Amino acid sequence: MQFYRNLTLRRKQIAWAWAFLAVPVLFYTVIRFYPTGNAVLISFQDWNLLGARTWTGLDNYVRLWNDPEFWTVFVNTFQYLLIGTPVSLVLAFVIAYHLDKLRFAHSFLRMLYFLPFMTSAVAMAWVWRWFYQPVPIGLFNNLLASVGIPQVEFLNSVENALPSVLAPAIWAGLGFQVIIFMAGLRAIPQTYYEAARIDGVGWWTVLTEITIPLLRPTIVFIVVFSSIGFLRIFDHVYNMTTNNPGGPLNSTEPLVLMIYQTAFTSFDIGYAAAQTVVLFTILLMVSLLQLWILRADR
Amino acid sequence: MTDATLSNVPDRVKPSSEALLSKPTGRGPRDNAQVIRWILLFLGGVLMVMPIAYMISTSLKWPHEVYNVNLIPEEPTLDNYVYVLEDGRFYGWFVNSIIIATLTTISNLFFDSLVGYTLCKFRFPGRTLVFIAILSTLMIPTEMLVIPWYLMSQQFGWLDSYWGIMFPGLMTAFGVFLMKQFFESVPDDFLEAARIDGLNEFQIWWEVAMPLVRPALAALAIFVFLGNWTAFLWPLIVTNSVEMYTLPVGLSGFGDEADVAWELIMTGAAISTIPTLIVFLIFQRFIIRGVVMAGLKG
Fold first, then answer.
1. Where are chain A's structural domains?
2. Are the Cβ atoms of B10 and A104 closer than 8 angstroms?
3. Which CATH class is domain A66-297?
4. Angstroms from B82 CA to nearest CA on chain A
5. Which residues in chain B are closer than 8 Å to A109, comparing Cβ atoms?
């Protein structure tokens, strides 16, 4: 204690700061940085958890490059992204744009759109899976049957399965995007709109010349946020296709499901680690793209 | 909630979360267009809630009525809930999820704000390095870490335990960043006054600074709790025995096992969804504000 009292104020501050940070720094080192390095190391090894770990250089990456399943999965993953992101962006913007103009029962309407965000992906994947069943089980096909429209094969069809799995993922994330868009719309100063009104500018011009350009940072945020979400899709796919994960015929299998199966079904740890490095690289590029776009804005 | 990009929101978008709760900007006349707009948005909102409504409705139906498309059960029954809860497993999973989500939330509230506060209010050598290091972990996806975490858990005997499920999420860079932003608004004079009053640095943080950032703490708590309540991939990997499952993992297995008993699956889904929905309905305004704060400031 005597030692502490003799310290200068500044040194006391430094001592306190590091005392506060000691446990967290240890945590980030052991639970974040060490595993990251470890994943990269393992990606250069051949290991099935039981046998010896052998160094194989780039073998896992070469194998991945020549693996037709990987390319199917790669295309699937980007399909989730390329359908999911624009669809949810446009829907969220249209909803937020119009919701922003309403006063009557405003927060009630907002609640309706936001509610799905509070649900658990696993639970709702099972609900939607039930919706998609053939007659006489599934809700959608029962509704179609009641108006005399032919049955649609949702989860059993190679073409329809991926969009069917994607729909609940879009649905669940929509409310969040609506809320973020509404906050962005509120942030646009009213003076711009008043000036436009005085000049007698039409609503379309206002939308394309004022609203959307000023929402650009919000749009970039939502695009990147939802892109990363769709690139990491797993819960919905896994739970809607438990009888044949990623099926039918791998048509719904995203990268994270491939990683999960390679690592924890086949225990091909090195190969799975290489896949995670690929995922990491893709996500990193998306994030850097965002930083680059925003920097260009300034 | 994934934390990968939340930090990248530019300063230029500063929609205040308060403004979102004030009246909407729209001040259109109450003409027909507004009425049509309201009706369309209302119908859209009803569609959004439909999956949740059907989940709850089906959980209240007798097996023979499940395939009817009517939303209101003819003879509502709690039989499915009695059956599912008497089985005992759901009760156990529910308790596991509550304990894990609560403890993780407490840990995040404590450590994330302690680190955020230290990085915000102290000047010490290594500060920038620690900040950048923690921030950079936002770029590392969970999927890349699960394999090393699994190996680590295997080595230390953490598999199939609460600690094993919880340890990766005890602190998050997103939380640190969020709290750091909010501590910026705490005036240094307050802390200086407390220092003159003879409080030590820990007391200053805990007794003076923390009460001033309560809204931020609440927002963080919501995100962390919801994230852990719905977490699936890591709990799926780290648990082996049925007793240690969390609700999503348990529900996933139960869905497979119940096969075509959709009313029971819907009951399980409802049990894992209704708690967060109730919390949302009670604290609606508050949670939406928290989402905007976390989404835009974090």
1. 2-42, 66-297
2. no
3. mainly alpha
4. 19
5. 38, 41-42, 45
Preferred mutation among B129, B147, B263, B284 to probe A, highest tally of A CBs within 10 A:
B147
Domains located in chain B, CATH noted? 27-77 (no CATH), 78-297 (1.10.3720.10)
Report residue B142 as tokens.
């969970």
Phi-psi region of B200 (alpha: psi -120 to 50; beta: other; left: phi over 0): beta
Exposed e or buried b per residue across B176-215, where buried means at least 16 C-beta atoms within 10 angstroms of its C-beta: bbbbbbbbeebeeeebeebbeeebebeebbbebbbeebee
C-alpha to C-alpha distance for B69 and A133, rounded to whole angstroms: 13
**Contact yes or no for B276 and A118 at CB 8 A:** yes
What lies within 8 Å, CB to CB, of B212 at 6+ separation is B185, B186, B190
pLDDT tens for B4-27 read 333 444 333 344 455 555 555 554
Task: Report how far apart the first and last C-alpha atoms of chain A are (Å, whole number).
Answer: 51
- Contact indicator for B142, B233 with CB cutoff of 8 Å: yes
Preferred mutation among A38, A73, A97, A122 to probe B, highest tally of B CBs within 10 A:
A122
A283 at interface of B, judged by CB pairs closer than 8 A: yes
Residue of A nearest to B53 (CA): A127
Q: How far apart are CA A244 and CA A241, in angstroms?
A: 5
Look up residue A151 and give its DSSP letter: P
Whether the per-residue pLDDT at B163 is higher than 90: the answer is: yes
Segment A216-246, tens digit of pLDDT: 888 988 998 899 999 999 999 999 998 888 8
